[in-house]
Amino acid sequence: MAKLRVALLSAAHLAMDMTTVAFVYVLIGVREFGALPEAGGAAWYSPHSAAAIAACVLAYDLLAFGLQPFVGAFVDLKKRAAPLLYASLFGAGLCAAVCVLCDFPQGIGAASAAILVFFSLCNAVFHVSAGAFVIAESEKKCAPLGVFVSLGAVGVALGRLYAPAVLFAAGACCAACAAGALFLKTNDQALAPHVERIGRAEVKENVGLAPLALLVFAVFVRGLGGAAMPSGYAAGELYVLLAAICTAAGKAAGGFLADAFGTKSVALICLPVSACLMLFANGIPVLYLAGLALFNTSMPVTLWLSFAAMPRMRNTAFGVMACFLMLGSVFAMSVSVPGWLAFALVLISGAAIAAAPHVSKNKPEISENMPRPRKARKEEGKDV
Fold first, then answer.
1. From CA 163, how far away is CA 26, in angstroms rounded?
2. Which residues of 141-177 are buried (b: 16+ CB within 10 A; e: fewer)?
3. Taking Cα atoms as reference points, which of 68, 97, 114 lies closest to residue 175?
């Protein structure tokens, strides 16, 4: 049941991101490559000004990601996530259907801005509330987190490329996933054992400022460095889809790799290799895409380690990581970052992730098959 729930919520992640991003692209009127003859088959086109487009995209990012820490704090305080999950999925699905049936929006205005805010809120609430159920399955292993966060990139790509054609279908998928979650009994009772365990667990500090600062720094510079890396390919439809698939594969693999080889190995091996491939092999699409996959292996690892930094506020930690990743990406879009600096930032983020467990007074729980330090094995009588 738990594995099915994680798989369903991952599919819902794809549907939610596809729905909300599709609406953003309908709103700003962007048409992908070659929508008009003058676009020449290789450019974006929109009837709106660059400032209007930037304002809409920025508003969406700030609300959809910036509100996640506050939603997470609410979930941690009330110890309830199911009502938020169903409200976000059914709300996004219904709103998408109404927009399509009413042929709305036709431009940027007050009403369409209000709908944008609503979709952004649905996105923020979904990520944290769905994440709460996945976090409950990630006490001793990182793999469920990787599976959950993976498909969002595919949803973003599909919404970006095929809006408005996919808006109705994506909204219908949101509603279908909500119905599936009901069938799998995704309710607050399913969270109760996890909430009870973390409530009675002995912790040395409720908020580990040192590891939290390292992880926040890591996700910020990772967002900054990743967005500033050379693209490595022409921005065509096929490569956008391939990049999304590789991103998803990397995030999913990152959780399994962390369980098998440890979080430090993922941070200190995958990130440096990815930086080299993305910077020095960016003219070779296959190698660049391999680097992109490796680059994204750190995402579930960072989330998982943040739970040790805030052991009784794990949903808040989830939201904080998402928020600072967005801030790094937005900052990269507003400044010019040379490739060598982006390369250095990715390396630094890997070092920060690897260092976080060592400065944390609360050690993250690890799965039985994760390599443990020799000293720990001796203390358990498993190594002589």
1. 6
2. bbbbbbbbbbbbbbbbbbbbbbbbebbbbbbbbbbbb
3. 97
End-to-end CA distance of the chain: 39
What is the C-alpha R_g of the chain? 21
Residue 355 CB-half CA count within 13 A: 15
Tokens of 180: 């599936």
pLDDT in the model for residue 339: 78
Residue 45 phi, psi (nearest 5)? -140, 140
SS3 31: strand
Alpha helices by DSSP H, the chain: 2-28, 50-66, 68-78, 82-101, 110-136, 143-150, 152-162, 167-183, 188-200, 209-228, 237-261, 263-265, 271-280, 285-295, 298-309, 314-334, 339-359, 374-379
* Residue 81 main-chain phi, psi, to 5 deg: -135, -25
Taken in order of first residue, the domains within the chain and their CATH numbers are 1-200 (1.20.1250), 204-384 (1.20.1250)
Identify which of 280, 290, 279, 276 has the alpha carbon closest to the alpha carbon of residue 243. Answer: 290
In the chain, which residues have pLDDT < 50? 33-43, 366-384
The answer to whether residues 281 and 270 touch, using CB atoms and an 8 Å cutoff, is no
Whether the CA torsion 332, 338, 342, 345 is positive or negative: it is negative
Count CB atoms within 10 A of the CB of residue 289: 23
310-327 pLDDT, tens per residue? 999 999 999 999 999 999
Q: Which residues 6+ apart lie within 8 Å of 42 measured at CB?
A: 33, 34, 234, 235, 236
CA distances from 241 to 120, 156, 285, 295 (A): 23, 10, 13, 17
